[in-house]
Structures are given as structure tokens and as C-alpha cells.
Specification:
single chain, 290 residues, 10-stranded antiparallel beta sheet, 19 strands
Length: 290
């Protein structure tokens, strides 16, 4: 009898922790249940732009954003460069270099004789982009409220095949002088820098040191730019305070905006302007030195 009671008590002792564990597991599961609400994403308004001068409006480099309404995931930046002088295009599908011919007459557009290098890569966009280009029959140009230009390639039925965004960094190419840093005018310091978007490099002359760095461009974001691996020749001089301030400003930069035809601003992630640049007239600069 005592043995039976002992066994019963032992079974009860084992069951209580098991029941407690099961309840704890159930409570944990129930706490994970969440109510998912439908969220409406507000898209940036776009304005359709009439294509009256294709050679001017469509010429140049365009980043490929999506193919058949699906965003791209590639190891390198996919893009297309349209050369209207030769009626040729070239670029990358994110893995291989591509080029070929294109024809355009206003809103009508087509691609043909497309060839590609044969690098082996794990990229589902590789062949998809080539095939999609052969189906293009029409082109549409739009502009957002932020002045971001997009080119939309359509098939002969008007279905959207590909969305491209104008490579917006070319306007940064060239020589600049630093006009403002943290809202303070520093034109009298004559701090100059040269931006080369193609080589993705930046070179600066502070009047004390030479600074070199690398430009990182995030093609998935409009006007996104970062400056990395900034190195100074490390001379000591009276201008070192301005130089340090500029280096900190460049390191904090994540975006840029065009102020007017000859000025741009570098901004932090939260939109704070840290540096304002004014375009240098190289011909005038050479003339002044003479």
C-alpha cells in the first residue's frame, strides 16, 4: 500500500512540472500572437514628362531599380548607359558587362544585338535582364517631387518591364570650393576639393594638407553618398581646425542635395546640412593664377 502511494505521489510530482512547463509554453506562444494591420504605403508622386528631345532627356547613365516589378539583388550595381551619338548602349546586369544597339523615336524604343560577358555568378537577374530588354517597345519618362528622374520601359501592350533611375551623381563631378561648414561661411579659407564619380574618389586641398578618400554610392537610394577611407598628409598648420571640421563633415555625410546650378549641400542622415560647396570655374581659376 505504501509502495502504491509512493508511486502515485512520484507520478504527481512529475506531472506538476510537466503541466507547468506546458502552461508556460502555451503562454509564451500566446504572447507571440500579434495583430497585423494593413499598412498603406504612400508613394512619391510622379509626373509624366513629355519626351520632346530624347537625345537630351534620355542620354546618359541609368540605374536599374526593378525588372518586371521585382527589385534587384546583385553583387554589383546594375545600370544602362544610353549613347545617342552612336545609338549604342552598354552597362551591367549586376554580374556581367552588357552592350548592344538601341533605336528610339520619341516614346518608341527597342534594343537589339545584345551581347554579354560570360562570368559565372549566382544572379537570377543575369539572363532575365537580357531577355526583358528584347521585349521593350516603348519608353516613359517621369519625375518625382524630389526631382528624381525615372525611365520606365514598357512592352508593346504597355505593360511595365523595367524601372530605371537616372544616375544622379554626375553633377558632383569636378572641382568645388567649400563655401560653408556647419552654417559658417569659410570661403576665405579657400578649401578646394575634386570629386570623380566614375573613379569613386575625392581629393581635397585644405591649404595645409592633401586629403584623399573613397566615395561609396548606394544605388538603391536617391542622392545617397558616403565618403570613406579619408586620409590626410598630416602636416601641422594654423588651418588644422577647419580641416578637422571638414573631415568630420565628410564622415557624417549620407546624402546630398542640389541647391542651384552651381551649389550643392552635403547632409547627415537626419537631413542636417554640414557642408555647402560652390562649383569652381576652372578657366577662371587658371586665369586668376596667371
Amino acid at each position: 500500500m505504501k509502495k502504491i502511494i509512493f508511486i502515485s505521489l512520484l507520478a504527481l510530482a512529475v506531472m506538476i512540472p510537466m503541466e507547468a512547463a506546458a502552461k508556460k509554453k502555451k503562454d509564451k506562444f500566446e504572447k507571440k500572437q500579434v495583430t497585423v494591420e494593413r499598412v498603406t504605403v504612400k508613394l512619391t508622386p510622379e509626373e509624366v514628362i513629355a519626351i520632346t528631345s530624347p537625345a537630351k532627356q534620355l542620354y546618359g547613365e541609368w540605374n536599374v531599380d526593378s525588372i518586371r516589378k521585382k527589385p534587384l539583388s546583385t553583387t554589383e550595381r546594375p545600370y544602362i548607359y544610353l549613347d545617342f551619338d552612336r545609338k549604342m548602349f552598354y552597362g551591367s546586369n549586376g554580374c556581367n558587362t552588357i552592350n548592344g544597339k538601341f533605336a528610339n523615336n520619341g516614346v518608341n524604343m527597342s534594343f537589339k544585338d545584345i551581347i554579354s560577358t560570360s562570368e559565372s555568378c549566382h544572379n537570377h537577374n543575369d539572363r532575365n535582364m537580357l531577355k526583358t530588354l528584347t521585349e521593350v517597345a516603348r519608353v516613359q519618362l517621369t519625375k518625382t517631387t524630389g526631382n528624381v528622374e525615372r525611365m520606365k520601359l514598357l512592352n508593346n501592350k504597355g505593360a511595365l518591364l523595367m524601372v530605371l533611375t537616372r544616375h544622379n551623381m554626375d553633377e558632383l563631378n569636378g572641382a568645388w570650393t567649400v563655401k560653408e561648414m556647419n552654417n559658417n561661411n569659410v570661403l576665405d579659407q579657400k578649401i578646394n576639393l575634386v570629386v570623380d564619380v566614375a573613379l569613386q574618389t575625392i581629393h581635397a586641398n585644405t591649404g595645409c594638407n592633401i586629403i584623399n578618400g573613397v566615395i561609396h554610392i548606394d544605388a538603391t537610394k536617391d542622392f545617397a553618398i558616403q565618403f570613406e577611407d579619408l586620409r590626410s598628409s598630416e602636416n601641422q598648420c594654423n588651418k588644422i581646425g577647419y580641416e578637422t571640421e571638414m573631415l568630420l563633415g565628410l564622415e557624417q555625410t549620407e546624402y546630398y542635395k542640389r541647391i542651384n546650378d552651381h551649389e550643392v549641400a552635403f547632409m547627415t542622415k537626419d537631413g542636417t546640412t554640414v557642408i555647402v560647396l560652390t562649383k569652381l570655374d576652372l578657366k577662371q581659376l587658371v586665369k586668376n593664377k596667371k
